[in-house]
UniProtKB/TrEMBL annotation:
<feature type="domain" description="Isochorismatase-like">
    <location>
        <begin position="33"/>
        <end position="194"/>
    </location>
</feature>
<keyword id="KW-0378">Hydrolase</keyword>
<comment type="pathway">
    <text>Cofactor biosynthesis; nicotinate biosynthesis; nicotinate from nicotinamide: step 1/1.</text>
</comment>
<keyword id="KW-0662">Pyridine nucleotide biosynthesis</keyword>
<comment type="similarity">
    <text>Belongs to the isochorismatase family.</text>
</comment>
<dbReference type="InterPro" id="IPR000868">
    <property type="entry name" value="Isochorismatase-like_dom"/>
</dbReference>
<dbReference type="Pfam" id="PF00857">
    <property type="entry name" value="Isochorismatase"/>
</dbReference>
<dbReference type="InterPro" id="IPR036380">
    <property type="entry name" value="Isochorismatase-like_sf"/>
</dbReference>
<keyword id="KW-0479">Metal-binding</keyword>
<protein>
    <recommendedName>
        <fullName>nicotinamidase</fullName>
        <ecNumber>3.5.1.19</ecNumber>
    </recommendedName>
</protein>
<dbReference type="InterPro" id="IPR052347">
    <property type="entry name" value="Isochorismatase_Nicotinamidase"/>
</dbReference>
Length: 211
């Protein structure tokens, strides 16, 4: 069984929300996410769902990425992806949230800012339930895309690989905060056995070749 995973494909990580965490081209990946979903039997998604009172919030982008001493919030960030705001919503072209087979909401606790969608904490101890759900549905392969490649997408893919799934990362269905971060993330994922493919066409060919 194959599942497609749309990781944090939200407006907050696109130029549609320039005051939050805009990632260049983040609003251009819906077609690739939809194409990879056509190759799967199940489709799941994660969404950042933050509080305006989050303890990691700073007032300006200039103060971001500073280290914190919270066990489950390691860096400062500006306010983003707050439930009920435009930034919380999925990017244009994706299904409504109710159309997915499983949804993960993460980062709700004010002192927790997880990156991966499989655990609520940074130590990978408190499960969001998605790994267990995938195993219950006999999923062995997960197709991953979303935002941003060098943070939440990378971490989610690594968590899934560590849980024993065969993981494909669709590069055309992702965008990164930085080119340097993207290169480092791709190297780390390859070392973990994750298969990186150029786009959904290459993904389809890889899946067909593995049968």
């Amino acid at each position: 069984m194959i599942a497609a995973f749309d990781v944090d494909a939200q407006r907050t990580f696109t130029p549609l929300c320039p005051n939050e965490l805009p990632v260049a081209g983040g609003d251009e990946i819906a077609a690739e996410l939809n194409a990879q979903a056509q190759l799967a039997q199940l489709r799941i998604a994660s969404k950042d769902a933050h509080s305006p009172a989050a303890k990691w919030v700073v007032a300006s982008h200039a103060n971001m990425l500073q280290p914190l001493d919270y066990p489950d919030a390691d860096l400062t960030w500006v306010r983003h992806a707050e439930a009920g705001t435009a930034g919380f919503e999925l990017i244009p072209g994706l299904p409504e949230a109710s159309a997915y087979d499983f949804l993960v909401y993460k980062g709700v606790e004010t002192a927790m800012h997880p990156y991966g969608a499989c655990y609520h904490d940074l130590a990978n101890r408190i499960s969001t339930g998605v790994i267990e759900w995938l195993k219950y549905h006999d999923v062995d392969t997960v197709l991953v895309g979303g935002l941003a490649l060098d943070f939440c997408v990378k971490t989610t893919a690594l968590q899934l690989a560590a849980a024993g799934f065969k993981v494909y990362l669709n590069l055309a269905a992702c965008r990164a905060i930085s080119e340097t971060g993207a290169v480092a993330a791709c190297d780390e994922m390859r070392q973990a056995g994750i298969l990186l493919v150029k786009d959904s066409q290459a993904l389809a060919a890889s899946l067909q070749g593995s049968n």
